[in-house]
Amino acid sequence: MKTLDFRVADLPYRISFDNEDIDYQWYLPSHGRFWQKEPSDAPILNLEVGEGRVADSHEGLETVGNFPSGDSSYDVFRRPEGGFWIRIVDLQGTPVCVFTTSARFDECRATLLGNSEQQRFGLQNCVMVCFAFSAAHHGALMMHSSVPLHAGRGYLCQGKSGTGKSTHSSLWLKHIPDCELLNDDNPAVRLMPDGEARVYGTPWSGKTPCYKQKWAPIGGFLRLHQAPRNAIRQLSALEAFASILSSCSTMIWDEPSYNAICQTISGICRTVKAYDLECLPDQAAAELSHATMCGCK
After folding, report:
1. Any idea where the domains of the chain sit in the sequence?
2. 136: DSSP letter
């Protein structure tokens, strides 16, 4: 068995392959910066991957539902002993991975399906899901947002698909001095024991290859809406909670992880401001959001 340790958001996790000769760098090309030479004593997740580890059958299991997610979908079934049986299906309708989880997603097993490209796609999605929901029990959230860094802080651009999260980040990079992109789609947000809210780079960043082993305190959350003008306002605590929650990877049907996620968001809302921005895709929008969130206005 080939065992590899990784660390994302300062949370260690382990992936073990039955095939000792597997080229993990090909299967997990964005994980290189997150590999840990020294194994962790207490990984939050152990994922075992191998042929025949999980049967491609959900007979006798309770149906939870089918959940589309961008370039894939997930068939989810509840196991009587706790946890879930999940099948990942690509956009062509081909199953690419089946995996089982424990109740807290700390012990998972997976079998990859299809050809090598399909298996790689399946493994990358499996690892992301398993990490997201094991990390939920450790004060961490996986969020759909684009994150520019400025003056040592990270600013999370949120919004529905197509609203311009990446565009707004790119406007910061172009027009605000000393900015860099931390992640363009799936950063990790973590509430630390001392109450500080941090945003981390991860091995997952959508269509933009931005995989940085780096973190920053969160400067603010920004929900975007396309509009014929530029206007910004601070959200109330309740609005901020709803806005952040809507951008998180959640399973409302899994009460323990959902409650953990809600508790983390509540803690974050006590220390970090959130805003709503009606905007055009222009320089003025970037300058307005930057000036407001960075206290320069």
Report:
1. 2-138, 141-293
2. G
Distances (CA, A) of 44 to 11, 18, 139, 230, 280: 7, 20, 12, 43, 42
Enumerate residues 6+ apart whose C-beta is below 8 A from 95. Answer: 56, 87, 88, 89, 113, 114
SS3 call for 48 = strand
CB count within 10 Å of CB 34 equals 20
Confidence of residue 251 (pLDDT cuts 50, 70, 90): confident
Per CATH, the number for 141-293 is 3.90.228.20
CB environment 265-292: b (16+ within 10 A), e (fewer): beebbeebbbbbbbbeeeeebbbbbbeb
Q: Per residue in 88-146, pLDDT tens?
A: 999 999 999 999 999 999 999 999 999 999 999 999 999 999 999 999 999 999 999 99
Question: Cα–chain-centroid distance for residue 238?
Answer: 23
Rounded Cα–Cα distance for residues 7 and 23 (Å): 19
Residue 3, token pair as written in the block: 């065992």
Quote the CA–CA distance of 273 and 139 in Å, as a whole number.
18
Q: Is the pLDDT of residue 250 over 90?
A: no
DSSP single-letter state for residue 247: H
Q: Which residue has the tokens 């024991």?
A: 193
Q: Per the structure block, which two tokens stand in for 199?
A: 């945003």
Q: Contact 181/291 with Cβ under 8 angstroms? A: no
Percent of the chain whose pLDDT exceeds 70: 99
Q: Residue 140's pLDDT is what? A: 97
